[in-house]
Amino acid sequence: MKTFLKRTLFAFFSILFIPLKKFVPKGNIIILGGSSRYNYKDNTRYLIEYLHLKGMTGLYWVTDCIEIKAHLDHLGIEHIGWKSPFKMLWISLRARIVIDTGNNFFNPFDIMSSHKSIKISTMHGNGPKVAVSRFHPPDNHKIGLQQIQQMYAFDHVNYPSSYSSSQIGKRVHLLPDQKIISLGYPRCDQYFDVSYVESRYKEKKVATSMCSLVNETSKVILYTPTWRPYDYDFPLSLMSGFDLEVFDKWLEINDAFFFFSIHTAQKPKNIPENLKNIINIDSNLPFYDTNEFLLEVDVLLNDYSTTSTDFAILNRPQLFFMPDYDYYKEDCGFVEEYNQVLSGKEVKSQKELINSLEYIFLNKDAYLQKYQDKTRELLDKYYDVSQQNASKNFHSFIEDLLNT
Questions:
Q1: 299 with 221: CB under 8 angstroms?
Q2: Cα–Cα distance between 364 and 219 in angstroms, integer?
């Protein structure tokens, strides 16, 4: 009943705004947002700060979070949200451009669907994993078609390499050439500043903010299991011989800390808790940004997440654990055979995980050398490292749109 009422109200107000969409003049207003109104991260966060730094006006971030509003006020960046509905709707009616990180854009009462509004997706990840899930299984055509339609609703969709533009943009998302852009990821610009990368690694301010035991000599391991469109247990619990308390003790002895993130789209069962050196990253933290944290990470443990591509730019060791590879491949699909392009070792047991971490701690350069070709192949396909100032690229692209 509640869902029916919400849909009815949305339809009613959408019809009400049809004439307003046609007659309210557009200004040089740009609305940016992310996956939630309660976090401040990803490509659009870095982009709005860059555009503001360059003196661009008419910028608005979408949020209903008090902490984020205070931060934006401090920066001098304006914001809109559902808690100030009249301002939000007026700004939306006048917005020329809306920018988001995924396959949906901010669109209250269908206002931004007008052909007068330019919709841009920076995209939020790029790698061998299919960027929009559930395209391959025969029983999921309806969901796949719906998601293709969502991507097609954008005027411009960003893929950070020629290969991904072709293999994902054209073949998976079925977009025409005129909708595809390749400008890089603003969140990755920081990785090309060597001195900044070194200072942030030593500082470890994100890690210490989440765990006071971390110090400048500690080893930081990040585990980023991606979401699954099906019920699942915390993947590490499926590892052969895995014992949380034994692993936690090993971490403590080796002055290492194991942070893990949980994708909010579909949370797993049996999430570890109340351990000393194994830390669950609170998904409700408004300012937690994975790409900022990656600067402090020594080893990335991954499965199918596109964090692998971003971390490859930093040229640091990676490990992979994929207990449901065949099932995930069948239900979600890959651009290519994923286990053939891994930029690190696949581990299958706790013993193998610990042995691999110990080897990496003592022989980092040798480990990186072993997977150098795979890392280069991953970046050649999924991130054009010549795009070292994506924010600047977007700035020029947006200015051209506004001046057209």
A1: yes
A2: 12
What one-character-per-residue DSSP string does 99-125 give?
EESSS----GGGGGGSTTSEEEE--S-
Give the pLDDT of residue 241: 95
d(CA 378, CA 21): 44
Sheet holding 78-80, edge to edge: 78-80, 59-62, 30-32, 97-100, 118-121, 156-158, 180-181
Exposed e or buried b for every residue in 340-358, given b needs 16+ CB within 10 A? Answer: ebbbbbebeebebbbebbe
Backbone dihedral angles phi then psi of residue 319, each to the nearest 5 degrees = -130, 160
pTM score: 0.92
By C-alpha distance, which of 48, 94, 41, 46 is closest to 65?
41
CA 298 to chain centroid: 20
For residue 133, pLDDT beyond 50: no
Higher pLDDT residue, 250 or 325? 250
CB 371 within 8 A of CB 173: no
Confidence of residue 15 (pLDDT cuts 50, 70, 90): confident
What are the angstrom distances between the C-alpha of 229 and each of 36, 133, 151, 235?
Answer: 19, 8, 19, 14
Rounded CA gap, 371 and 155, in Å? Answer: 38
CB-side neighbour CA atoms (13 Å) of 131: 30
Nearest to 93 by CA among 190, 32, 39, 23: 23
**Helix-helix angle 350-362:244-253, to 10 degrees:** 10
Q: Taking residues 253-257, report their average pLDDT.
A: 97
d(CA 117, CA 129): 30
Identify which has the larger pLDDT, 318 or 272.
Answer: 318
Q: Please tell me the distance from the alpha carbon of residue 226 to that of residue 306, in angstroms, as a whole number.
A: 8
Q: Are 292 and 206 in contact (CB under 8 A)?
A: yes
